[in-house]
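Fold this sequence, please.
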Amino acid sequence: MSVAQTVQSFVGIANENEFYGHHYLAEVFKGDIRALIESWQAAEEAAAQAIAAGEAAEETRAESRAAHKRLAGLGGKWFAALANPTRLRGDAERLLAHQELHAPLLEALGYKIQPWQVELQGDMPVPIWAAFGEAHQAPQLLIVPAYQPGREDEDPLDHRLTVAHYGGQEIPPAFSKLSWLEILSEALFGSDQPPRYIILVGYREWLLLDRYKWPNNRALRFNWADILDRKDADTLKACAALLHKDCLAPGEGNSLLESLDENAHKHA
């Protein structure tokens, strides 16, 4: 698909075809997300003080932790669960295990999985895990699982939809010969109301996609095996800032990602 260059500052993140300029990511990006990280840390400290004062329940401590710290604490369970899909026989069981593998990561980033189908292009219903945006408008963000059991070591863009993705029902004819690379272009970004962003969830890695950058095959690829193994603080902060719901789909106003794009253009 692309020429991928690892962002040297962030272990496990590949900047494919310059989703952002390499200079921007290496020299400017950390400063652009500093205020966000500080606000998360301040909220965590305020919650801890409220718990200590008896004004909040102890159970709220985990939820109030900064997103990058929540990610840092998930590695052990994630690696323990990683092999589960390959130990299961049925494709449906493997797909469920894939969902359970990534649910904690998504939860740490502000998401809740609610599986359903979105049909932005006629006769092309795509299974998704979540959608965000205003009613009757193009989605701001879709979270899309892209895992085909048995192809765990292959690029998720090469995976395909199967009957298991449709609960045992027939695959829509339009998808019978399409890979995810083609599904993204034809059924999602190529629709009349394309989403602005897509998080494509593969077996071990995610891709962050932007409809304005997709025609040039530009993407950020997050290898969770590397990220959670190394637990590099700057990398975890970058993951949280680039993937968190509040940063991609805040509900109102421009997203942080749009602001990052504007500044990246200034430093191109």
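The chain has a mean pLDDT of 92. The chain has one domain: 4-26+66-266.
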